[in-house]
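Morning!

This is the sequence you dropped in the shared folder:
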Amino acid sequence: MQNNVLKDPKFQQKFGLKGLSTRISGHQIFGYLQWPEAGERQVWTIAEGAAKYLMHSVREEKEVPGGGIEYYNAGKSVILYPGQGKISLRCDTTKEYAEPRKGGEDWIHLLLEEKIERKDRVYLNEMDRLDLTLDFSIDSCENCMSRETYNPMLHAAQACWFFTVECNQDQNLDFEGRPDYLWFGIPLFDNRTEYMDGPQVFLDKGTEKVIYSVKRGEYLQEPIAIGKKYSIRLDILPHIKKAFAVAKEQNWLKGAAWSDMSIGSTNIGWEVPGTFRCQLTLENLGLYY
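The structure's back. Tokens below.
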């Protein structure tokens, strides 16, 4: 029997709504998305990094066909299908950015996140495989910038699924007092390119952690077409092992051993440092061991 690392894959529990930005109050829960049948054990959160229109303070809701509930405001929409394991995330950053984003400024995130509690974690060295499952579609992606203002070095609409691979030994705490970790990524979409070469390894300036992203050709052999559904089925354990080895080679995760490591959290959705209207739909999220 396979076990799912994700604790609420069908979206049966209430959702938390996270903080004001990715850097300030980023871990605080300010409110909830609840419906009559929702369980009280909040597992997933919606994170709205750097947003002007925050769903915990301003939102409306309505029922949509297929058993869904849409929560929305001027800048975003979350369409949740409770009990079905399906969710759509829409950003309209024309309402968020007063002018084209400049270098060094924060950008809009709309992410589905789950933290894996320590008592629920399974060490990666105890797994034979770790099978990721996901069905997704990029329903729309409209670049609302002019040719003169659009700078692909600064402006984009990107979708990715990330995991933190964390060290569970207390002697390996980072500078913020958290377990040391690396970011492990499965890129889904980037408006600037049809293909994502890789693997890519670089330092995330916001968290000061190394990011390792798998080459998209490992799980998808075609460019992403708007409106088409794609399925990913991939044993990511060998790729995480490689990411760990690369991080150690670059002198990250000092003192950590492979036997210390487990999945600590996950997030999936949009990062939109440009002025775009974009939506994606996610279904059948799984991480089975």
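Headline: The chain has a mean pLDDT of 91.

More detail when I'm at my desk.
O.
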